[in-house]
């Protein structure tokens, strides 16, 4: 059993308030949860308008399936957010 943890830092340049940012983050979280068997939450930057850090955790029977899952998730995030990914980090335990 392998546990994968992915952290994605997102810049949302068009967000003008916390309400704007929370709408984008909630929509993203709901879509990802609906499509993948993962756990996720906003782990940092909750009080910043244009920055969000999303933590994603998944459990698999090996590292290769998790690598594929995280690559799929990163591609979806890049395609769906009205901003850009600043940083991403993946760790396996």
Can you offer a commentary on this structure?
The protein has helices at residues 18-35, 63-80; strands spanning 2-11, 39-44, 51-60, 84-92. It has two helices and four strands. Strands 2-3-1-4 form a four-stranded antiparallel beta sheet, with helices on one face. 39% of the residues lie in helices and 38% in strands. The N and C termini lie close together (9 Å). The protein is elongated, with a radius of gyration of 13 Å. The longest helix is centred in the first third of the chain and has 18 residues, at 18-35. With 93 residues, it is an alpha+beta fold.
Topology (SSEs and partners):
Layout: E1 2-11, H1 18-35, E2 39-44, E3 51-60, H2 63-80, E4 84-92
Antiparallel strand pairs: 1-3, 1-4, 2-3
